[in-house]
Amino acid sequence: MLLVKTLGNSLLNRPGVRTRVLLTARSGAVLPLLRKELDNIEADLVEQKLGPLDSPDARASMFRAACRAFAEVSSTGTRGPVPDSAAFTGPDSGHALTLHTAALAAVDAHQRGVRPPVDPAASTSYLLDRERAQWLHHWAADAASASGRVGSRPTDNTPNICGSLVRHLR
After folding, report:
1. Among residues 27, 63, 74, 110, which one has the fewest Cβ atoms lying within 10 Å of its Cβ?
2. Cβ(53)–Cβ(65) under 8 Å?
3. The overall pTM is greater than 0.70
4. What is the pLDDT of residues 30-69, one digit of tens each?
């Protein structure tokens, strides 16, 4: 598991250095496997279930806070405040993961000057498309600098994987 390998890295696993990782998921189904793997590197796992935010004001507040945080760490800066989104008004929009996904997509779209996604499925699709584009860009840069490289592109299966994921989420 890549996460466990990363957490076991000597840069993170030094005496006196604490590393905290926040994982968000729609279910806790993977936790037993993750707990077993983390035990092997003597890492702790604390599970905290987050219920949905019931209040539209609380949802809007979380969305705005996430937008500010994503804009702060973005390498491109921001083009002014990110407009509010309809992402926190739907019946399934009170979950932290949904709000943070919508905020990340809204900030990226705002910075790129494009229309932001309008619902949770569209936010997920938007971010998967951006991820794929980034990998394609990265691969093209690597290919340009490494002539004669053997092997297939790392994104050859991405359309199938992303398409399956998006269909599952809808």
Report:
1. 27
2. no
3. no
4. 788 888 888 887 778 888 888 888 888 899 899 999 998 8
The 10s digit of each residue's pLDDT in 75-97 is 655 566 777 766 666 777 888 88
Retrieve residue 100's tokens. Answer: 């943070």
In angstroms, the Cα distances linking 150 to 143, 146, 154 are 10, 10, 12
pLDDT at 108 over 60: yes
22 dihedral zone (left: phi>0; alpha: psi -120 to 50; beta): beta
Secondary structure class of 100 (helix, strand, coil): helix
Q: String of b and e for 69-82 (b: at least 16 CB within 10 Å)? A: ebbeeeeeeeeeeb
The region, left, alpha or beta by phi > 0 then psi within -120 to 50, assigned to residue 95 is beta
Closest by CA to 103, choosing from 123, 89, 121, is 123
